[in-house]
Request: fold
Amino acid sequence: MPRTTNKRKKLHIKKGDRVMLNKTITSAPSAGEDREKGYIGKVLRVFPERERIIVEGVNMRVFHEKPRMGQPEGGRIEREAPIHASNVNPVDSNDNPTRIGRKKIEDPESGASRWVRYAKTTGEELDN
Reply:
């Protein structure tokens, strides 16, 4: 069923999650080593409209930057480039890759409810 009210895309990954690569990501030839399938890293940034994420230490690229206030010399700077969100799986507390489910929980005191993400392998909640 298509979304009618909230058209914003939802991803199964959020900033700060620990994820495992399910595909080998090759870096630029001069930018360092490749990250193999099974590497676990932390999500630094999420771009839901493009369905891409930036993972710490993955897909390192060399960017040529102009001098500016923060970096007076400018030059060639290595940093992470985005990868598609389908190339990673979140990990549970046992460092096993898992799929994500969503369930609605209710606060018994206030009666308010909210949606939380949970790991399908262990059933633990991923959102605090």
In short: The chain has two domains: 1-91, 94-128. The chain is about 0% helix and 35% strand. The chain has a mean pLDDT of 88.
